[in-house]
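hey m, so remember when u said the C-alpha cells were messed up on ur end? i reran from scratch. heres the input so u can diff it against urs
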Amino acid sequence: MILQLEGIGKRLTSIFVGFASRLLGDHWKPAEVNRHFRRDCRQPDSARSCDVTQRPESDRLLSGAGQSDGLVHINGLKGYKMLQGKEAVLRMAGKRSASSSASNKPKRPRKGISLDVKLNILRSFDAGEKLSAIAKTFGLATSTVATIRGNRDKIEASAQVATPLSARTLYFHRSEVMLNMERLLSSWIKDQMQHNVPLSTMVIQAKAKSLHNDLVKGGGSGAQEKPFLASKGWFDRFRKRFNLHNGHSDDVEAVINYPCELKKIIDEGGYMAEQVFNVDETCLFWKRLPERTFISKEEKTALGFKASKDRLTLLMGGNAAGDFKLKPVLVYSFENPIALKGYAKPNLPVIWHSNRKACMTVTIFQDWFINYFCPDVEKYCAKHNICNKALLVIDNALSHPLNLNDLSNNVRVEYLSMDTALLQPMDQGVIENFKMYYLRKCFKQLVKANDGEGESTVREFWKKFNIMNAIDNITESWDEVKVSTMNGVWRNIWPECIKNFINCPPAEPAEKVTRDIVALANEAGFHDIVEGDVIQLLDSHKEDVSNEDLMLLAQAQASEEANVVETSPSPLQLMTNHLSDALSYIDQVVEILSANDPNRERSLKVGRLLHDAMSCYREMYKEKMRRKQQSSLDAILVLKAEPPSPRT
C-alpha cells in the first residue's frame, strides 16, 4: 500500500513540477524540490512537522511560509494538499514578481491625451471608421479609444466651454467654477499681453483668486467647493493647459542696445526702408463715448452688457518708409453680425476674422502672414522695382507664431522681447493718432445726426451705430494717418531711416485733434465735455478688463451664439435700376452746382472729380445694359428660328 502511494506521489510530483516550471521559469528548481519532497515523504510524522523556516528557500517557497492561505503544505503525504489549479501557482508567482520584476521593470507612466486628439477620434467615428482602424491611426489601445467614444458627451462639453485643445486628460473632476475662472483668466492674460503689460506669477495668481471669488459669489452649480488658493502648483498646471510662455527679458540694457542690433540685421540683409515693416495689435472699444456724455450716463444705469464694453482687435502696420500702410486685420466676437448681412467679407476694407474673445490668435496671425502680408509685399516690391524681400519686426506676443521664419523664403521675422517691445514703432504714435481720428470721425457723424434737433436724434443715431459703421470709420481714420507719422515713429529704433517730408502735408498735432473733438462734442449737444474727458476716453482703451466685464462679455457672446441661426446670407446685388438712379442723381448734382456756383472754375473741377469717381459705375451700367440687349436679341432670334405651329 505504501509503495502504491509513493508511486502516485511521484507521478503527481512530476506533473506539478513540469506545470510550475513553465510558469515560474528560472526561479523554479525541480531537482531540489523533488529531493526535499522525497525526504519529507520518507521521514516519520514527528520529523515532518519541523519548522518550515528552517528549510531551503525553494522549500519555503513551496510551503508558503508566513502565508495563511494554506494552498501548499508539503508536510508528508498525509497532510499534502495539491495546488488548486492554475490560480495557486499564479499566486505563488506573485511572490516572485514582488521581489524581482518590480525592481527590473519600472512602472509605465500614465499617458495624457489632449482634447484635440479626442475630438479627432470622435470625428473619425462620425465618419464611419472602425474602432480598430482608429486605434491604429492614433497609436492607442482599442479600449482607450472605446472609452473616449463612451465619454463623447463630456468631451464635447469640455470643448464648448473653450477648454484649450492642448489640455491633457483630467485625472480628477474639476468644477464648473474652476473651468470658467481659467477661461476668463486666459482672456484677461491675452488682453494684457496685447497691450504689452508685463505679468508676473503673483499678479496672475491674484487675478485668478479675484475671479474665482466673484464667480463663487455669483453662485452656480459648482459654487459650493473648497477654497481656491491659486498655489504655484495650480499655476504651473494652468500654464501648461493654456500653453503660456514667458517672453520677458531681464536685460536692463536691452532697450539701449537693441537699435544697434537691429541696424546690424538691416545692414547684413541689405534691407531698404521700404522693405522693413512693423505691425502690432490694439484693442478698440468701437462704441465708447466720454463718461460725462448723457449717452454714457444712461448706459451705466441700464442692465446687461453695455455697448461701450463691446470691443474688437485690430492688427495695424506698415513699412519704415511710410508709403505703404497694410490693410488692417479686424477680429470681432461674432462671425456674421446682422450689420454685415449681404456683404462679401473678402471685399470689406478690412481683413475680417472672428472668435469668441475678439482677440488675435496664432491661427489668425499665421493666416494673415501667409495669405496677405507676403503677397502684398511681393506686389509692392514689384511695383517699385525693388528686390522681393522684407524684414518684419514684431513683439513676442502669445498670438505670434514662433515659426514664421520657416513659412517664407523672402521674409525674415525679428521678434522683440518684452523689454525691447517698448520701442515698437506702431506704439510710438501711429495707433494713438488713429484712435484720435476715429473718435473725431464718430463725433462728426453725431453732429450731422443732431442737426439741431436735440438729444433724441443723437441717442437714436448712436443706438443704430453698428459694426459696419465702425468699419467705415476705421478705414477712413487709417487713411488719415500721414506718411510722415508712419516714418517718424521709427526714430527710436532705427533713426537712420527718418526722412524730411517737405512736399507732404505734416501730421496734425495731437492737441489740435483733441480740441476738434471737444468742439464737435459740444456742437453735438455734449456741452460738459472738455479736453480731459477726451484724453481719459483714449486712455480707457488701455485699461484692465474688470472681472464683471469679462463675465458679461462671455454671457453676451453665449446668448448671441444661442440665438444666431447659421444661414448663408444672400449677397447684395447692384441692379441696373440702382446704377441708373445713382448716375442720374450725380448728373443732377453737377448740373445744380454748375448753374448756381459763381466760381465756374470750382464747379467744373468738382464736376470732373465726380465724373471720374463714378466712371467705374458707368462702365458697369453700360456692361449690364449691353448684356440685357443681347439677351433680348437672342430671345427674338430663337422665336424666329422656331417653325410655325400647324393650323388645326
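this time it looks ok to me. The chain is about 55% helix and 5% strand. if urs says something different then somethings off w ur setup not the seq
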